[in-house]
Amino acid sequence: MKIQTADSAGFCFGVARAVKMVRDEAAAGRTVCTLGPIIHNRHVVEELAAQGVTTADTPEDCPPGATVVIRSHGVAPGVIRRLEDRGLRVLDATCPYVAKIHRIVSAQPPGVTVLVAGDPAHPEVEAIVGHCTAPCYVVEDEDKAEKLLDKWGDLSKRHFVLVAQTTFLTSRWHKIIISLKKRCTNLEIFDTICKATEKRQAAALSLSKQADVMVVIGGRHSSNTTKLLDICQEQCPSVLVEDAGDLAGHYALLSRASLVGITAGASTPVCIIKEVQRSMSNLDNINNDMTFEEMLDQSFKSTYNGEKVTGVVTSIKPNEIAVDIGTKHAGYVPLHELTDDPGAATEDLVKVGDEIELQVVRVNDVEGTVMLSKRRLDAAAGFEKVMAAGETGEILTGIVTEVIKGGLLVLTSGVKVFVPASQSGVPRDGDLNTLLRKEVQFKILETNRQRRRALGSIRAVERARREELAKTFWEEVEVGREYTGPVKSITNFGVFVDLGGVDGRIGLTDLTWLRVKHPSEVVSIGDVITVTVKDIDTENKKVSLIYKKAEDNPWEKIKEIHQVGDIVEVKIMSITAFGAFAQIIPGIDGLIHISQIARERVEKVSDKLKVGDMVRAKITELDYERKRASLSIKALLLAEDQEAEASMAEAAQEAPEVPAEPAAQEPPVEEETAE
After folding, report:
1. DSSP letter, residue 428
2. CB count, 10 Å around CB of 611?
3. If one looks up domain 308-373 in CATH, what number appears?
4. Is 124 a catalytic residue?
5. Are 340 and 330 in contact (CB under 8 A)?
6. 298: Cβ–Cβ under 8 A, 6 or more apart, which residues?
7. pLDDT digits (tens, 9 = 90+) for 193-233
8. For the chain, what are the domain ranges?
9. What is the rounded CA–CA span in Å between residue 312 and residue 356?
10. How far apart are CA 110 and CA 103, in angstroms?
11. pLDDT per residue over 529-575, tens digit each?
12. N or C: which terminus of the chain carries fewer CB neighbours within 10 A?
């Protein structure tokens, strides 16, 4: 008879973690109580009871002053509150995979309908339902799911979220998904079946298809164990044993088998598996060169952390790939261990059947899994390249992947090199995020082989490049030569432009013909502009530049437009104590002296004029040499007065003479006579 063990069997991470927490608390001398059996295995429970660990069914049954351990199944929030209300110390051993489901369902708003694929009577499912604030329903299989959907009729306006009990049958899970997808147009699926459970079920299914008899080791009340038994029974005769003592009733069946397969539930510790192994090894009809104990030991044979292995890609998922490394372990590479690129897709990086070199990161003999890394192996080789570059001064190329406190992380050959902000080449007041996802060149300043760290400088490369460019610049520069470059910085009095290794300065008066308060009104940092060399100071390595163009000189333009004596409409730009400045054309403001504002004496300019006013004035002066212009409103007004007087005089001369009317005669006065 040949005996073969499933690739994945025995204690899972969550159960092992919970048992260890209880043992540690008991070893510390504390009063420990578990809310329900910490594990569905009577041997472990009896062992813990011998150490003083008790079991309670409800929070109210827990002894006063005890440390209450929540088992890996988890509990509803209300249960925790009941324990804390009693003043009990709570130690939460909820499996991280289960806790993840709690976070998913508790985050759903009231408008979402949560569906849980699982056993409604199982403690884990009860806890999941307890964390739901949205409407929640448990479905055991696709039939139950269909009947539930039938109750609601129109499903188009419903938003469904589907999660699964961590130990749920994967075959049943996929059937539920298929059923729901046919009818639910807005369905969000979270595959929350535990990785170890999935691997354990897949391994049991594969082995049971080959075996004549399957032996499933685990507690009779363990959900994941009974599911393993269900999987195996569909393929071949299968028996469930809790320990070696249960084998006695199955010797006849086992002895007739050519191949006996072995698997174990998540609640089954290695010691129980080996106890069963020793009993089976004593069967008279076992004809193997290797005992079952040896075979079991081989199935748990461990590789070691840091080991370099060759693996073949067997399956690809969005967040990880499965790899066969030639041992009984189920190898997997998480996406973050496959590449440093968070935006990369697994299917774009590898294909099923690809053979890749990997490094062992973590071996879990309890679960029968091994986490592997391609990224770390690549980084190890890459670090040697980085070390060599530090010694030779070689310039490396990399991608800025992160902006962190104090600097940048640049990825090159699988190695993340830290570049301090001071070595980034970004100005002190600049934004490091401008370099994110950009390709940069840098030099290695410092390495630490023991800590596998490297310090780099982008600035050093830039400085060396600028020094080379500066050398060429000073050899070729001359007054009147044009250069094109980006604006590097702006001050109150000018602008600095990168001419290629050398920064040239544009004074405010050489920046524009227009009247501006600050250079930022004309250019911005990063603008690429063309400038002309105005002056060169070779000794002090300074270059003065001109940005404004001669053809834009407003004093040349005004010659073609206006002359002294022209009447123009102007805009008041500023007010002073002695007058106001008004824009004749852009770049030329003329002074309207206080004495030239009105006919009468003006005491205060602001009484007559305001900034922004449009007024008519006469150009009284255009001094091209001194770049001065004068205007007069008064001259225009006086001219208008003179014109008016002249018009009145002319009108008077041209008017016809009108003859005078004769004076009216008074009637004669009669003389009075004396009577």
Report:
1. T
2. 12
3. 2.40.50.140
4. yes
5. no
6. 290, 328
7. 887 777 888 889 999 999 999 999 988 878 788 889 999 99
8. 2-96, 98-189, 211-290, 308-373, 378-462, 477-552, 554-645
9. 6
10. 15
11. 999 999 999 888 899 999 988 778 888 888 888 999 999 999 999 99
12. C
